[in-house]
Fold this sequence. Notes:
This protein is mainly alpha-helical. It contains 18 helices and six strands. It has helices spanning 38-44, 58-69, 72-101, 126-132, 140-149, 154-165, 171-184, 189-213, 219-226, 229-239, 247-264, 274-299, 304-321, 323-331, 344-363, 370-392, 399-414, 420-450, and strands at 105-106, 133-134, 137-138, 336-337, 452-457, 464-469. Strands 1-2 form a two-stranded antiparallel sheet. It has a two-stranded antiparallel ribbon with strand order 3-4. Helix 7 (171-184) crosses helix 13 and helix 8 (189-213) packs antiparallel against helix 12 (274-299).
Amino acid sequence: MTRDGDIPTIFNPRGRNRAPSVLVTDEGVANGPFAHADSVSSQQEPAETSSPTAPTGLAAKLKSCSISLCSKSARKIYFGIWVTICVTASWVGATHCIKYLYLQRPITDIDEDPVLVPHDTSGLNMTALQKQYAASYQAPFFTTWFVTNWTMLFFPLYFLSRLSTKRCKSASEIFTESIRGYRDKGFTAVRFMTRCSVFCLLWVGTNYMYILSLRILLATDVMALFATNVSFVYLLSWVILHEQFVGIRIMAVIICDTGVALLAYMDGITGSPTLAGVVLATSSAAGSAVYKVLFKKIIGDATYGQVALFFSLIGMLNAAFLWPLSLGLFLTGVESMNWDKLPWPALLTASSLSLVANLLGNFSVALTYDLFITLGLITAVPVSAALDVVLYGANFEGMKLAGMILIAVGFFLVMFPANWPDYITRLLRNIIMLSHSARWSRRNRHGMQGAHRRDVVDYRTGYIRSHLRSPSGRVR
């Protein structure tokens, strides 16, 4: 079960639940991380056998260092760093590929590179610019529909991975295991498909607002605004799931909202579409939070097979029932795209990278802590900013930079544990104890160095009396 205060990751609606890492073989011996061969072999050896001498000195230090570096927690940290890098790369790549679809392309010469036309066109001759460049792709809903179709690959990939590990006797056992969990929770076929349809609409709506906001804002602005979904997750978890109230997380929500307000008014409010783009990106973050909290409330704890089946059903429902809407938007002229000049490489790359990001977010908790998965959302912002500066010459200063910094601060404050005052108190107590011990050891060392032994001869008795004198001259 999820502990109080644990926030699910950006992609993973199941929180910290993960499959057990200890497996039982046919012989009944656990081969997990806590199984040791020493306990078995020690019973077969005679009691007279002496244990080998433990290494000392440099060998002992090297052995303890190697044990700590190769421990289970250390391996999870290594995997976590790698997962954070992969999530960051896939998230940034998918977002920038979608942004590339909206670039203005030349009308006359198709070999020229596309350009980014800024929304602040006060100093530009738009008449001359529109004669040279035009937007050949303006289809955010088609992009959302196409990208969501790739989620159908969740269960096939999970199915192949389970077959490769040879943990199941047959293919039907994998599918039955994924269905059994929903059946045990009381879901009938009609009720389960109804829930999947609701989550499919919520998923498509959230991604549509995210992709539509990329028509207005830079990729870095949209990704920074989407990072506020962790604050929405905490608020909804507090209200709906009755999570523990943590004051610092409420302060983090306020800081994130302040950052959103700065980004909303960074270009003014008169004649600028920036406010609409910020509202769309923030609504996308809120929709993502609603999706994850409702998943936890309605579906509850789910295994990897159940999550894979759920995502595949979302992709199938999207492909089967939402294509008429995409076709209707195209025929009515709401969305426009030139099929002869359709940028298929960018569209396919964005879909595949989005699939990779979602796979990492849902299945990487088997290898590492979900904190590293969530960090991939905020670490993607500076990487995307560097790409915007290099590719489009973007400037991050003033209210825009301040808003992004506030969102990042709020993001990290939300990730604070629920019992963070205990950690702070324990840290301060340790610091005070270390300072006191260092002070007393220094005082005793100086006192012993200053004290000297003095032998005094009593001429009346002929005996020698020893006195331990301190630097002050008093006899101790």
